[in-house]
Design brief:
The protein has two domains: 218 residues, Rossmann fold (3-Layer(aba) Sandwich), CATH 3.40.50.2000; 155 residues, Glycogen Phosphorylase B (Rossmann fold, 3-Layer(aba) Sandwich). α7 packs antiparallel against α8. The chain is of the alpha/beta class and 390 residues long. It is globular. The chain has 17 helices and 13 strands. The strands form two sheets. A seven-stranded parallel sheet has the order 3-2-1-4-5-6-7, with helices on both faces. The chain has a six-stranded parallel sheet with strand order 10-9-8-11-12-13, sandwiched between helices.
Length: 390
């Protein structure tokens, strides 16, 4: 197949979950197919040369389409008055659509593939077989953000939640193949035929994320894009509610917050016991230099790549019921799950004081991720569905 891949962002560097998923799916699909990549770009600071070098081995053609701040503003205004989600308005504009159309006409692909509903407007009406990777259930993720938002911002999130619900359902029949990252996400999808959506989980690059012997500098580590609202919320939960309980019995406990573009609220949490790194050239050092991984996610959707990476590097991991619902690890055997700050804190204390239990949990988590999460196997499911659609 010749597959035209349309993304809302250049999938490199791999500091965001959608980029990581897109990059690895392209890598796997390129083994048996020709890939024509078209990636929108709203960030002038992204190094297109670095991205081109990273993607060139897997793509027959690489195209980056710049969208300016003015185009974004106009798109948001149009979306508001047309009743479309702001997610769509941000990424869709007519100038970019002309470039996308020209590339499709030039390359004549067998299959169109778009990641996230943000890019659906560009191809949903094309008379070519189409695949959409919803990835996460955006609408319910927005609802969770609305539930914890301030009085002033809650109406905005609620409006976007309702628009996303309508849009997710409206574009369902425009695509021949639909995929999503986990069963819990699919179960929340606002369409009566939700069971037709294929579950295509993420994988782990086990050759990259492997156990490393390293001096331990930190007790706890939390990683991710630190401007992403669910991660910001998790940092505040750690700093304000969980760690104060831990410090009562283990005042020396430290937390390493590692990830790109830390939000001002993340920076505010920094202290002599909470270290905020910002961008790291190699996130593996953050895992390797820490004793325990924690991801106390309270909002957001989808599968947490950070958990897969940490467990693949044989770190004992603690998370929330929300995150583990998508992950599917066995509580108390492969992972520890805390339903509130008190339970999270107790899990931390247990793993920092009981090395034997920590090692046993780390090994079980390592075995679990290596057994279940593989990019090749996951992408094969999607590729087979694409071929059937042709």
């Amino acid at each position: 197949m010749k597959i035209f891949v349309l993304l809302s962002r250049i999938p490199y560097p791999l500091e965001k979950g959608d980029k990581l998923r897109a990059f690895n799916q392209i890598k796997q699909l390129s083994k048996r197919n020709e890939i024509v990549l078209c990636a929108l770009n709203d960030d002038p600071k992204v190094s297109k040369q670095d991205a081109f070098r990273a993607l060139q081995p897997y793509c027959q053609s690489i195209n980056f389409v710049r969208i300016s701040k003015l185009q974004i503003l106009l798109g948001l205004v149009r979306a508001f008055f047309k009743g479309l989600p702001m997610q769509c308005g941000y990424f869709f504009n007519r100038k970019a659509a002309k470039k996308v159309n020209a590339l499709i006409a030039k390359h004549k692909p067998d299959m169109l593939f778009c990641q996230l509903l943000r890019t659906a407007e560009y191809i949903r009406h094309k008379d070519i077989p189409k695949t959409i990777d919803y990835q996460d259930i955006f609408s319910y993720g927005m609802k969770r953000r609305a539930d914890v938002a301030s009085f002033l911002t809650r109406p905005i999130y609620t409006m976007e939640y309702r628009r996303l619900c309508r849009y997710e359902a409206a574009i369902f029949d425009d695509f021949d193949v639909r995929t999503i990252i986990s069963e819990p996400d699919r179960a929340l999808f606002p369409h009566e035929k939700r069971d037709e959506i294929l579950i295509v989980p993420n994988g782990v690059d086990h050759e990259k994320y492997h156990p490393m012997d390293c001096e331990k500098k930190y007790d706890l580590v939390f990683t991710g894009n630190m401007s992403y609202a669910p991660n910001v919320n998790a940092v505040e939960y750690l700093a304000d509610e969980i760690l104060p309980i831990v410090w009562k019995s283990r005042p020396e406990t430290t937390l390493y917050i590692a990830g790109a573009t830390p939000d001002p609220r993340v920076k505010k949490a920094a202290s002599d016991k909470i270290i905020v790194s910002g961008w790291l050239d190699d996130i593996r050092t953050a895992y390797a230099e820490s004793r325990v991984f924690i991801a106390p996610m309270r909002i957001g959707t989808g599968l947490q790549n950070k958990l897969l990476e940490a467990m693949s590097m044989r770190l004992p991991a603690i998370t929330s019921p929300l995150a583990n619902a998508s992950l599917g690890a066995k509580p108390n055997e492969e992972i520890l799950v805390g339903i509130n700050a008190q339970e999270m804190a107790q899990h931390i204390i247990t793993l920092l004081t009981d090395k034997e239990k920590a090692d046993r949990l780390a090994q079980a988590g390592f075995d679990f991720t290596n057994r279940v999460y593989d990019w090749g196997k996951a992408t094969e499911v999607m590729e087979e569905a694409m071929r059937k659609a042709l």
